[in-house]
């Protein structure tokens, strides 16, 4: 099992589990997608600077492909570029761990990254749901940025209730999908599905600007511009 040691109680160092997608394309195989790299790297950099231990998990384990659009200027910022140009870090995305190889008791937080690929493999992953439920119920932090909140859609707690029901949350909005020109290719409307599950969905007045919502130990960011602020909000909870 990965990280089979206990959680770091009372110390500065915490263990954080980043969730990334295995999906490389839309329903149309000629339309590539994958992990939006900066949504991982901004959080990774912030947590690394604080000395936290970090690992990667994906629904199936193995390779996490990268969203091509996120690798172009101006979206490929210094943080994402540094990761892309580091063979050791790129290797981490070739060998992510499967959920059944993870001991949730070893982690203080789970952090769902985005990219459109997650819409196909996050929502119905029993393994991810089990990890999220366990980390939440042991007092850990649950975070998600952009489309990463799709990984929280179907997670139920031990009492059968949905994790997101009655909780304030944000994530990539339907308006942003339309403005990005990809709404017709989406398998579902994530914003609407969150509302259908009883989540108290919120979004910024303007699209594509940073917006973070914290509800207790649940932290969500609306879009790629929210990646740094989302990670900082998670960090504050871990420090607290």
From TrEMBL:
SUPFAM superfamilies: Class I glutamine amidotransferase-like
GO MF annotations in UniProt: glyoxalase III activity; transferase activity
Cellular component annotations (GO), alphabetically ordered: cytoplasm
Residues in DJ-1/PfpI domain copies: 38-234
CDD domains assigned to the protein according to its UniProt record, in alphabetical order: GATase1_Hsp31_like
Keywords assigned: Glutamine amidotransferase, Lyase, Stress response, Transferase
Family designation: Belongs to the peptidase C56 family. HSP31-like subfamily.
Protein name: Type 1 glutamine amidotransferase domain-containing protein
Organism annotation: Paenirhodobacter populi
Source lineage: Bacteria, Pseudomonadati, Pseudomonadota, Alphaproteobacteria, Rhodobacterales
């Amino acid at each position: 099992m990965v990280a089979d040691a206990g959680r770091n109680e009372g110390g500065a160092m915490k263990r954080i589990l980043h969730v990334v997608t295995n999906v490389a394309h839309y329903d149309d195989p000629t339309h590539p997608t994958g992990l939006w790299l900066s949504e991982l790297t901004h959080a990774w950099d912030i947590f690394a600077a604080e000395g936290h231990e970090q690992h990667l998990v994906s629904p199936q384990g193995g390779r996490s492909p990268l969203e091509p659009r996120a690798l172009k200027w101006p979206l490929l910022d210094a943080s994402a570029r540094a990761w892309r140009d580091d063979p050791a870090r790129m290797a981490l995305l070739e060998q992510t761990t499967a959920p059944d190889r993870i001991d949730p008791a070893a982690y203080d937080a789970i952090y769902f990254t985005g990219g459109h690929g997650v819409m196909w493999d996050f929502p119905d992953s029993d393994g991810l749901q089990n990890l999220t439920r366990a980390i939440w119920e042991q007092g850990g932090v649950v975070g998600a940025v952009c489309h990463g909140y799709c990984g929280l859609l179907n997670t139920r707690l031990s009492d059968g209730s949905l994790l997101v029901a009655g909780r304030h949350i944000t994530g990539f909005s339907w308006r942003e999908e339309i403005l990005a020109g990809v709404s017709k290719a989406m398998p579902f409307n994530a914003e609407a599905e969150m509302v259908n599950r009883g989540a108290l969905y919120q979004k910024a007045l303007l699209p594509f600007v940073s917006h973070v919502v914290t509800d207790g130990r649940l932290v969500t960011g609306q879009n790629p511009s929210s990646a740094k602020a989302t990670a900082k909000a998670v960090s504050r909870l871990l420090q607290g």
